[in-house]
Design a protein that fits this description.
single chain, about 200 residues, mainly alpha, about 0% strand, membrane, transmembrane helix, DUF624 domain-containing protein, DUF624, transmembrane
Length: about 200
Amino acid sequence: MNRPPHRAWWSGRVYEALDTMCRYLLLSLLWTVGTALLVTAPAAAAALVATVRGWAQGDEGPVCSTFFSHVRRSARASSVAAVPLLPAAALLAANLVIVPHMGEQRPYATAALVAVVVPFLVFATNVIPALADETTGVRETYRRTVERIVVQPAAAGLTTVVALIAACCVFVQPVSALLIAAPAARLVVAAHGRHTARPVISA
């Protein structure tokens, strides 16, 4: 017996919405587990963006196998790319503790620190979309990151803002990672648009 057209429309829309919600929740869970291991955190972040980008392009493959395939592909490049960023981040964090106690020099030190921290955060957060590409190495990843920041400054800034807001939410309430990780990646993919989906041609 055929269902009435309005029932078919209703069922299709509800199923699609539930399917999308479940896929986003599962992907956020996979990212949370991957990030909790710390060593695999960069690869998990790159896989998160790559998986969501695939969805935006119509890829409806299984969530787990797609995510882990991206983790395996980007594991080496993402780990190597994170190596020089970690000491820089530690040094900046130490300065954030020291600067407030610098007395009369504090305003100047604060301005100098902000001038360094902001570009660092923009670069570090935009490395992730570059790692989600089919890159050939760390040098290519860094080159693409700089190029995108220059070509799409608004998208780069939005990526940084989204990443910082998501990090603050997870810091305040860790369980929120299950709700915001994949949607945040979707915002990043939408911000970068086609530019992140196609390879950058070397000069």
